[in-house]
Design goal:
Elements: H1 25-32, E1 36-41, E2 47-48, E3 63-68, E4 71-80, E5 94-102, E6 105-111, E7 124-130, E8 138-143
Bound molecules: zinc ion (ZN).
Length: 152
């Protein structure tokens, strides 16, 4: 068993800093307050991510924003070994996970706090927000520390 990777914050290049648009601004405003908020379709009640003006399930243009607890399970992941920009040179290797928050609702984020060879399908994780330059944090995940409570 190797030492878990622990980083106090994600290092991101200027090009990787979030840039909200009209659809995603409420997501980033919530993230800036340390909350994870997702769109919920007002017609079919499904959560969705990424933010979009129209529900891909039923075509409704009506949605609300719901704060969720940020707990989920690793659905898939990659370990990045090649820095795609010089600003990420000190971060490699780093893991990026696709986390399932609810059935069919998946969100990508940097996965820290776990050794890369211990990442597994279904690993319970919880959201974290890494501060970076500018108003919007980078969304990431860390192990939740237990198998209870996270959605299947
Ligand atoms: Zn819908």
């Amino acid at each position: 068993m190797s030492e878990p990777e622990r980083r106090p914050a994600a290092t991101v290049s200027p090009g990787a800093v979030p840039v909200p648009d009209a659809d995603s601004l409420p997501f980033w405003e919530a993230a800036a307050e340390g909350k994870l908020s997702l769109q919920r379709c007002s017609a079919c009640d499904r959560l969705r991510f990424p933010p979009s003006p129209v529900c891909s399930h039923c075509g409704s243009w009506d949605a609300t924003w719901d704060e969720v607890d940020g707990r989920g399970r690793v659905y898939s992941w990659v370990v990045v070994h090649h820095a795609v920009t010089p600003a990420l040179r000190d971060d490699v290797p780093y893991a990026v996970a696709l986390v399932e928050l609810a059935p069919g609702v998946r969100i990508p984020g940097r996965l820290t706090g776990v050794a890369h060879d211990e990442i597994r399908d279904g690993l319970p994780v919880t959201v974290v927000f890494h501060p970076v330059d500018g108003p919007w944090p980078v969304v990431g995940f860390v192990p939740a520390g237990d198998d209870d409570g996270a959605p299947a």
